[in-house]
Amino acid sequence: MVPIPQSISASIDKMVGSEHRTRFIVELLEHEIQRREQLQAVLEAAGSWKDEEHPELANGSDAFVRNLRDSASKRLEKLQQEAGDLISEWKQLGRTFGLPDMTIAAAAISNNLVLVTSNGRDFPMAELMLYPL
What we know:
With 133 residues, the protein is mostly helical. The chain is built from 4 helices and 2 strands; from the N terminus they run H-H-H-H-E-E.
């Protein structure tokens, strides 16, 4: 048993009630232990970052993030074009598919991914690898 000064005990009781005092103290201790463990991890990791190991950040993190966003936008535009091409191709064959399904199909095809679905009838593309559920 750990003695707690009466003034602290009274403050805890005022906040959470005496019936919740133990739970409050345990949660507080858990939080403090976690905080100190995280602080120790940060202190141990100090100096582990080497700028030369991260040339992608040479122009600053703003430029890096901007570049990520630009490349994502370009990939999305390409994906939208491929989905549109699939829609047109299948429309000429008499089948109509929605943009969401064709976007999924285009993403799987262009990235050589297996599409896991229970809805294989909406993905009849020969070049698409399906794993039926």
